[in-house]
From TrEMBL:
The entry's keywords: Hydrolase
EC number of the protein: 3.6.4.12
EC class: hydrolase
Organism: Gracilibacillus pellucidus
Protein name per Swiss-Prot or TrEMBL: Holliday junction branch migration protein RuvA
Domain of life: Bacteria
Length: 199
């Protein structure tokens, strides 16, 4: 397998770039060839994936190893071929895609060309927990910390409302609205609660 090619970006088309090395021009089909527009004439290291089928052999080119690895992973999804995998990589980052898979964000996944709800569910089924990246762990940790801070602030606000003389039933009635505030400051919840309770 050809892991990468070092060469000069000689030409850009709608679907590919031509990378010239030692007098040979390699056509590399890329997620978004125009990323390399400013690199025309410059030497670049492009990571490649050699796709072979009965009627064709195609070299795909990627900016880095993570992008190539994700392309290979998406190819493993039932019903998605190289064209669909390229469309995903052309419109999002590796990090954002991985986080969407781990969080089962169907709305994000169906924003890609040719991806409906059924395909989005298949992506989640085939890829969740199997992507070799650390982005999801980092994102989940940040979200967990934010949620914990928000919960603590909300609890503090609930206690403050009780101290102000509001009953459990009054507080329970407005709690669903307060939860949507997603704040890490008890004062924010208290102000919102007082406004609701005065209605």
């Amino acid at each position: 397998m050809i892991a990468y090619i070092n060469g000069d970006v000689a030409e850009i088309t709608e679907q590919s770039i031509i990378l010239e090395t030692n007098g040979v021009g390699y056509e590399l089909v890329c997620p978004n060839p125009y990323r390399f527009q400013v690199k025309v004439g410059d030497k670049q290291k492009i990571y490649t994936y050699h796709y072979v089928r009965e009627d064709a052999q195609i070299l795909y080119g990627f900016q880095d190893q993570d992008e190539r690895a994700l392309f290979q992973q998406i190819l493993n999804v039932s019903g998605i071929g190289p064209k669909g995998a390229l469309a995903v990589l052309a419109t999002t980052s590796v990090r954002d895609f991985v986080v969407a898979i781990e969080q089962e964000d169907e709305k994000f996944l169906t924003s890609f060309p040719g991806v409906g709800k059924k395909t989005a569910r298949q992506m989640i089924l085939d890829l969740k927990g199997k992507l070799p990246f650390d982005y999801q762990a980092e994102e989940m940790l940040q979200q967990t910390e934010t949620t914990q801070q928000s919960n603590q602030a909300l609890n503090e606000a609930m206690e403050a409302l009780k101290a102000l003389g509001y009953s459990e039933s009054e507080i329970k009635k407005i709690k669903p609205v307060l939860i949507k505030e997603h704040s890490d400051a008890a004062d924010t919840y208290i102000r919102k609660a007082l406004a609701l309770l005065s209605l």
